[in-house]
Amino acid sequence: MLEEASEEEEEEDGMEAGDRVSRGLQGKKSDLAPVTLAMVEQWKQAAKQHLTPKLFHEIVQAFQAAVATTQGDQEGAEASRFQVMDSAVFNAMVTFCIRDLLSCLQKLLFGKAPKDGTRGAPPSSSPLWGKLRLDIKTYLSSVTQLASCLTEATVAAAVLQHISSAVPYYLTFPPQCRVLLKRMVVLWGTGEETLRVLAFLVLVKVCRHKKDAFLGPILKRMYITYVKNCKFTSPSALPTITFMQRTLTEVLALDSGAAYQHAFLYIRQLAVHLRNAMAMRKKETYQSVYNWQFMHCLHLWCRVLGTLCPSGALEPLIYPLAQVIVGCIKLVPTARFYPLRLHCLRALTLLSENTGTFIPVLPFLLEVFQQVNFNKKPGRMSAKPINFAVILKLSSVNLQEKVYRDGLLEQLCDLTLEYLQGQAHSIAFPELVLPAVLQLKSFLRECKVANYCRQVRQLLEKVQENMEYVRCHRQAVSFGVSDQQAVDAWERQTRAEGTPLTKYYSHWRKLRDREIQLEISGKERLEDLNFPEIKRQRTEKMKVEDRKEFKDLFDLDSDDEEDVFGLSGTGAPGSLRVQHGAEEEEDDEDGGSSSGSEEEVSDLDDGGADVEAGLGPGELQRLAQGPEDELEDLQLSEED
Questions:
Q1: Exposed/middle/buried for 568, CB within 10 Å: 0-12, 13-18, 19+?
Q2: Which of 13, 26, 136, 160 could form a disulfide with 198 if both were Cys (CB 3.0 to 4.6 A apart)?
Q3: 401 SS3 class
Q4: How far is residue 391's CA from residue 399's CA, in Å, rounded to a whole number?
C-alpha cells in the first residue's frame, strides 16, 4: 500500500510540473512582441543612418525569430523576445538582413569610411568586437539555418551570396564555420546548378583562408559526396559528375601535400578492391570493381594527377594508378565489357596526355579490332543506337545487333584519334603508330562493310599524313637520339607549330562536342539537316486518275468480253440456255477466281460437251444450212 501511494504521488507531482511548464511556455509566448512591417522599416532606416550595438541586438533577435518559424524551432523562438507571425513580415525581415545588414555592420566595426587596409582585416580586430560578438554568432547561426531550409532557388542563391560575403565573420567562429561547410558540401552535391556553383565558391573561400583547419575535412566530405552521386550515370547526370570532378580537382590543387595524402589513400583503396576481385574470382568481388563509382573515381584521380603533375608532388602516383586501370581492363576481358574497357582507355588517354607520360594504350584498342568480326551479319536490327558513354556492359541481345558494331567501331576510331593526337608531336611518332597502321590496313583488306571501311580509311589517311610530316621534319635535325634536351625542345616546337593530326582533331572535337550536346538535350543527331521531302499521292486518287486516262481501253475490254461470252468458236451465237446456265454457275460460285472464268470461256470456244448437249439434231442442221440468217440476227441483236 505504501508503494502504491508513493507512485500515485509521483504521478501527481509530474502532472503538476508539466502544467507549470506549459503555463510557463504560454506565458513566454504571450510575452513575445510581434514584429510588424512598420518595425522592420524603422529598423532598416535606423541601421542605414547609424547602427548601434543595441539596435543590432534587436535586429538579430527579430531575425532569429523569423528563421525559427521555417522549421518550427521552439528553442530558437523562446531565445528571442520577438515573434514573427506574418509571411510578409518574414519576407521583409529576411530581405533587409540579407541585403543591407552586413554593410551596416561593417561600418559599425570599422567606421563609416573604412580604408583598404582595414577592409581585409578580421572582424575580431575591431574595438567593438567584444560587445557584438554574441549577437554576430547568433546571426551567423540563423543564416546557416536559413540556407538549409530554403527551397526557392533564387532566394537560396541570394542567401549563399550573402554567406560568401560573410565568410570572414564565419572564420572567427570555428563551430559555426564547420556547420556551414557541411551544409555547403550538401548543396554542392545535390543542389540546383547555380546553388552548386555558389556553394563551391564558399568552400574555396574558406579553404584558402584556413587550410590547416578546414581543408582536410572538406576534402574527405567532398570525396564521399562525389562517390555517392556517381552510383548511377545517365546522359543528364554526366554534366553534374563532370562539374564535381573539376571542382574537387580545384580544391585538391589548393594544397599539393594534402592532395597527395588523399590521392594515395583512395587510389590504394581502389587497388585493394581490384586485388580482392583478382584473388577471389567471385561475382560479388567483380561487382565491387565493375561499377560506375569505381570508374568515376579512376577518372577523377586521372584528372587530379594530370592537373597537379607539373608541381611534381603527385608524380609517384601515376604508375600505380595506371596499373590499377590496366588491371581493371584485364579482369574480365570479354566482349560484354567492351564499354567498360573504353572508359578505362579514355581515362588512360587523359592521364597520358596531361602528365606527358607514355602509356601503351594502342594494344588494348587494336585487340578489339582483332577479336570482333565486323563482317558477321547481325542477328537483330534495332533503330535505337547504343550510347557507350552511359553503359558499362552489354547484354547478349546487344551483341547481336547491328548498332552494337556501328557504335563500337565509332568508339574505337574516336579513341585511337584522341590518343594519337596526344602523341602527334613526338619525334618517334612513325615508329609508335606502325602497329596501328598495319592493323588498320589488315582491317581494310578483310572488312566488306563500306561504312566501316570509310571510317577506318579516313583515320588511316590522317595518321599516315602525320607520319610523313614528322619523318620529313626530323630528317633535318642535327642532334642524336641520346640528346634528351634537344629532343624535348624539338617536340615542344612541333607541338607549338601544330601537326596535321592535331589540326584535324581540333576540328573533329568541335563537331563531336556538338553531337554530345544534342544527345544530352534529347535531340537526334540529324535533326538540323534538311532532307528533301518525297510527296506521294494517295492510292485512291491515283486509281481515279488512271481510270479517267484509260477509260476507252476499259470499254474495249468490256466489249471483247461480251463478244466472247456471246459467240461460239465458229462465230455463231450460243444458245440462251447455255448462257443462262453459265450465269447461274457464276452466281453460285460467288465471285470465283479468274482462272475458273477463263476455263469456262475456253469450254465455250471449243464447243464442249455442255454446248453439244444443249443443241438438238434439228437445230444443228438449221445452223449448217442457213448461217446468213443467223448473222442478220446477230446484227440486230447488236443494234438493240
A1: middle
A2: 160
A3: strand
A4: 14
Measure the CA–CA gap between 106 and 46, rounded to whole angstroms: 15
Give pLDDT, residue 624: 57
**What values do phi and psi take at 396, rounded to 5?**
-65, -30
Distance (Å, whole) CA 221 – CA 183: 11
What angle do the packed helices 193-209 and 174-190 form, to 10 degrees? 150
Mean pLDDT for the stretch of residues 188-200: 92
What pLDDT digit, counting tens, does each position of 541-588 carry?
A: 555 555 555 455 444 444 444 443 344 444 444 443 434 444 444 444
CB 139 within 8 A of CB 63: yes
Q: How far is residue 442's CA from residue 444's CA, in Å, rounded to a whole number?
A: 5
Stated pTM of the model: 0.74
Residue with cell 557541411: 182
Task: Give the Cα separation of 516 and 529 in Å (integer).
Answer: 16
Side-chain-side CA neighbours of 586 within 13 Å: the count stands at 16
Q: What's the average model confidence in pLDDT over 515-520?
A: 71
CB 348 within 8 A of CB 322: yes
Length of the chain: 640
pLDDT of residue 585: 45
Closest CA to 245 of 200, 301, 192: 301
* Residue for grid cell 508503494: 3
CA nearest neighbour of 190 among 158, 229, 219, 223: 229
CA distances from 48 to 55, 97, 273, 347, 637 (A): 11, 12, 60, 56, 119
Task: Give the closest residue to 416 by CA, choosing from 373, 473, 455, 386.
Answer: 455
For 235-261, write each residue's pLDDT tens digit.
889 999 999 999 999 999 999 999 999
Per cent of the chain over pLDDT 90 is: 56
